[in-house]
Design a protein that fits this description.
Largest sheet: 5 strands, antiparallel
Strand order of the largest sheet: 3-2-1-4-5
Number of strands: 5
Shape: elongated
Number of helices: 6
Strand content: 15-25%
Structural class: alpha+beta
Order of helices and strands: HHHHHHEEEEE
Distance between the termini: 83 Å
Helix content: 25-40%
């Protein structure tokens, strides 16, 4: 009996293991998942669909910080588990929060997991209508204080043409000028069947503030009307027509070439 009691006493300290610090483990996992999500968007090029290139360094910085903090948190857990002392798991510093810790952590984990399985897609004509494509023919939301037009007219992008019209909104002044632009097809309700809009989204900061700009295109006789959201390169010369009871610049004598969706579909 005495030998049995001694054996139980010897086994008792070893059998009582330090409880796993689940909150710390989840914190570290959450941070590493966020770093993995940002890394995925960077490697696949999908970050161009979410952020302006000027602000991508913030995403890269966040990726490095979350990875570093996640590894530090997991190392802290490992050190804790290797310790022979009976201590509770690592605890986060108490702070005031509107949501309980479990709920906020769960939300951050859910967003990270969603980001790892979701593939962003460029905006389409449906989004362009939702964001007011009928208001983009003569203006952009950000007006330059000074705009100097240089180079050949066929080197101008859709955004360059719209900004040019902002500075001097007289369509007849550009009649006959060569044009070569690319974008996706949008069909405007009420327009003639032989006219569609070639559209691009402009990104000023992130996808949340993207807005559409576009130019009308007149199809040559006998040309089939392209389907919405088809990416095209359009070459031709500028003409003027009346659309929506307004004299507007229209790409005439158009040659349409279908192109793949570009890696960076937005203008800046």
């Amino acid at each position: 009996m005495t030998s049995s009691l001694r054996s139980r006493r010897r086994r008792s300290p070893a059998s009582q293991r330090v409880p796993l610090p689940w909150q710390a483990i989840i914190d570290g996992l959450m941070l590493l998942l966020w770093a993995a999500m940002l890394l995925r968007f960077t490697v696949t090029g999908k970050l161009y669909l979410l952020l302006h290139p000027d602000y991508m360094w913030l995403s890269h910085l966040a990726m490095g910080l979350t990875f570093g903090m996640g590894m530090a948190r997991m190392w802290q857990v490992w050190q804790m588990m290797q310790s022979s002392q009976r201590q509770g798991g690592p605890r986060s510093q108490e702070h005031i929060a509107r949501l309980p810790r479990q709920i906020s952590t769960g939300l951050l984990l859910a967003v990270a997991v969603f980001g790892l399985i979701y593939t962003p897609r460029p905006f389409t004509s449906e989004t362009a209508f939702q964001r007011g494509i009928t208001d983009v023919l003569g203006q952009t939301r950000s007006r330059p204080q000074r705009f100097v037009l240089s180079g050949a007219s066929e080197d101008r992008t859709i955004v360059d043409w719209i900004r040019t019209l902002n500075v001097y909104p007289e369509p007849e002044a550009y009649a006959g000028q060569a044009v070569k632009v690319s974008g996706f097809v949008t069909h405007i309700p009420g327009w003639p069947e032989n006219i569609f809009m070639i559209t691009r989204f402009v990104l000023t900061c992130c996808a949340a503030d993207a807005y559409p700009v576009g130019l009308p295109v007149e199809l040559p006789p006998g040309t089939e009307r392209p389907k919405p959201d088809t990416w095209l390169e359009v070459t031709g010369s500028m003409t003027t027509q009346t659309l929506d009871n307004k004299r507007q610049l229209v790409i005439g004598e158009a040659t349409l070439t279908e192109i793949p969706e570009p890696r960076t579909p937005y203008e800046y």
